[in-house]
């Protein structure tokens, strides 16, 4: 069976072709499904372009299969699900743009005109579905050749393609990284890279949501650093994440230099990606990868040179954690628990490393478990990924010590159950026992008991906590009612 025969073996394609013939329409499967067939990649999202009404064809298919069709009249598209695959139908069209706007002028068009408006040659290939030439490949721009050569290029001059929709610049980078394998890497042609650099500021007309959607897809690749280096080289990264590009460069004073924190951040990001063994994008933690990308974001504003000591980045984890909400807000990313998760990991990323360097005490481990809570496992992945050095012996030593920290954490967790710590002493309990209303004394007593548990002064038990509560309350002059 040939690639095309295998690609169109699903009976739904013949059904679409027969129905199109009955309606006097021409129908083609186009885009990502065709590309992925040649690459041997699974794809259950199928785009069908129709010379005529895509909505009419979708409704006819839905009537035959009993599927529910969703119609989007404003866009001239319709979508339905059939036996585990998603089918989207659209009429062939041609588009033109005003330079100041992302809203295209859309008109009915032919397949050829529709292919001209596609982003890349490898996404412009189509298979005919009509019975007369079922399976015929329509590849006017050499997409099959470009797939074989690992080339990302535009059907038209890149300046025109990118001007029409600047998001395509990010998509080019995303496809380059997403489709690459060690055996078959992809690259973007030089004229496209040059056009991206020349048109980098046009990225500003895009909504932040569209940019972040592409960036998230880059983050979820096996080696996301490649995407960020390409965005940096083309000047695109600075347009929406200047805090990251501010980390670039190495300064030397009095013979003392520091590492390139931009390159280091990308290395940590790749390390986290390697440590993520999830098998599906739905399970992969994109927010852990955001934390890796931003973990040293506070180093640019905190960089100082101290004579006789060298370069310092004191408090960069605190400053970086404060920067996270501003970055998320500017990029219209969620400001909910996802942002707080990234902020927490940025804030805590040095703590496990500090335990590696210092004596690992039960108290220090308890406090780390308490502060990290259920995110401790992800924090450990990030902190382990943060161990980078050109000295292999140093890395090996730190990683051995890191394993000792993990063992100590397991011991303390089993003994003290601190990860999901809840103070045995509640405000209601104090008010009930001492017959008082809400006041600062309650918080003082609760904090005293909590600190005693975390320091190992008393065990994490109700009995010990209540005994210490009574001692502290007596010191404060409280009497039981």
Write structural notes for this entry:
This protein has helices at residues 3-7, 11-23, 32-39, 54-65, 111-116, 143-149, 158-164, 167-179, 190-198, 208-219, 225-233, 237-240, 242-245, 261-275, 286-294, 299-302, 316-330, 337-348, 351-357, 362-372, 376-385, 392-416, 427-434, 440-454, 462-475; strands at 26-30, 45-51, 69-72, 77-82, 85-91, 93-96, 105-108, 126-128, 137-138, 151-152, 187-188, 252-253, 256-257, 304-306, 310-312. By secondary structure, the protein is α+β, with helices and mostly antiparallel strands. Among the domains are: 3-144, 2-Layer Sandwich (Beta Polymerase, domain 2), CATH 3.30.460.10; 150-240, Hydrophobic Seed Protein, CATH 1.10.110.30; 427-475, no CATH class. The strands form five sheets. Strands 3-4-5-2-1-8-9 form a seven-stranded mixed beta sheet. A two-stranded antiparallel ribbon has the order 6-7. A two-stranded parallel sheet has the order 10-11. It is elongated, with a radius of gyration of 29 Å. It starts with a helix and ends in a 6-residue tail after the last helix. The model has no long low-confidence stretch (mean pLDDT 90).
């Amino acid at each position: 069976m040939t690639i095309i025969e295998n690609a169109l073996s699903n009976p739904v394609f013949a059904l679409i072709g027969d129905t199109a013939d009955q309606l006097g329409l021409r129908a083609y499967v186009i885009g990502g499904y065709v590309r992925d067939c040649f690459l041997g990649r699974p794809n259950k999202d199928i785009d069908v372009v129709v010379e005529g009404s895509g909505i009419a064809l979708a409704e006819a298919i839905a009537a035959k299969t009993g599927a529910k069709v969703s119609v989007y009249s404003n866009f001239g598209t319709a979508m339905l699900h059939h036996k585990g695959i998603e089918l989207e139908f659209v009429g062939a069209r041609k588009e033109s743009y005003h330079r100041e706007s992302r809203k295209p002028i859309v008109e009915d068009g032919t397949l050829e005109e529709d292919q001209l408006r596609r982003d890349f040659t490898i996404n412009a290939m189509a298979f005919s579905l009509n019975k007369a030439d079922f399976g015929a490949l329509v590849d006017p721009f050499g997409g099959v050749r470009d797939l074989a050569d690992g080339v990302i290029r535009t059907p038209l001059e890149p300046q025109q393609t990118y001007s029409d929709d600047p998001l395509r610049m990010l998509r080019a980078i995303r496809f380059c990284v997403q489709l690459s394998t060690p055996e078959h890497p992809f690259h973007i042609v030089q004229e496209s890279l040059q056009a991206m650099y020349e048109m980098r500021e046009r990225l500003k007309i895009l909504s932040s949501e569209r940019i972040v959607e592409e960036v998230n897809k880059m983050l979820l690749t096996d080696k996301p650093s490649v995407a960020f280096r390409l965005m940096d080289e083309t000047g695109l990264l600075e347009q929406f994440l200047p805090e990251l590009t501010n980390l670039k460069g190495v300064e030397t004073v009095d013979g003392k230099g520091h590492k390139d924190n931009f390159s280091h951040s990308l290395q940590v990001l790749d390390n986290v990606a390697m440590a993520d063994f999830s098998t599906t994008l739905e399970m992969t933690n994109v927010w852990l990868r955001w934390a890796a990308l931003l973990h040293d974001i506070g180093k640019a504003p905190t960089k100082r040179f101290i004579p006789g000591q060298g370069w310092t980045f004191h408090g960069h984890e605190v400053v970086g954690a404060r920067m996270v909400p501003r970055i998320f807000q500017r990029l219209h990313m969620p400001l909910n628990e996802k942002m707080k998760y990234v902020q927490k990991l940025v804030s805590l990323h040095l703590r496990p490393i500090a335990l590696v360097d210092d004596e690992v005490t039960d108290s220090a481990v308890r406090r780390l478990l308490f502060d990290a809570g259920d995110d401790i496992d992800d924090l450990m992945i990030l902190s382990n990924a943060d161990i980078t050095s050109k000295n292999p012996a140093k890395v090996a030593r730190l990683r051995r010590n890191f394993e000792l920290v993990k063992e100590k954490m397991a011991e303390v967790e089993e003994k003290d159950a601190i990860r999901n710590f809840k103070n045995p002493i509640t405000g209601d309990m104090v008010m009930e026992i001492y017959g008082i209303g809400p006041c600062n004394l309650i918080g003082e007593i609760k904090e005293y008991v909590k600190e005693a548990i975390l320091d190992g002064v008393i065990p994490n038990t109700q009995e010990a906590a209540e005994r210490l509560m009574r001692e502290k309350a007596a010191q404060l002059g409280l009497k039981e009612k």
